[in-house]
């Protein structure tokens, strides 16, 4: 949960007109044990598909499109993009 003083646009994925958009994905983010729970991926995910629970990020693969923004902003490189094939 974010402190009250931070006002970032945060979306929560829900099934909308596009349906379960995770089907479009070619690569998926995988969170490794290096995750420190810093919330950078949560804050930058354009689809709101990442939640940080405890000290580890969790990806909602039903809606994640595999854009890779989370892997690019991770300061400890705990997220790697893995091919779906």
Automatic annotation (TrEMBL):
Pfam family, one: Fer4_21
All residue ranges annotated as the 4Fe-4S ferredoxin-type domain in the record: 27-54, 55-84
Keyword vocabulary terms for this entry: 4Fe-4S, Electron transport, Iron, Iron-sulfur, Metal-binding, Repeat, Transport
Signal peptide: none
Cofactor list: [4Fe-4S] cluster
Top-level division of the source organism's lineage: Archaea
InterPro entries listed in its UniProt record: 4Fe4S_Fe-S-bd (IPR017896), 4Fe4S_Fe_S_CS (IPR017900), PorD_KorD (IPR011898)
Coiled coil, from the record: none
GO function term, MF aspect, one: metal ion binding
UniProt-listed NCBIfam families: PorD_KorD
Protein name from the UniProt record: 4Fe-4S dicluster domain-containing protein
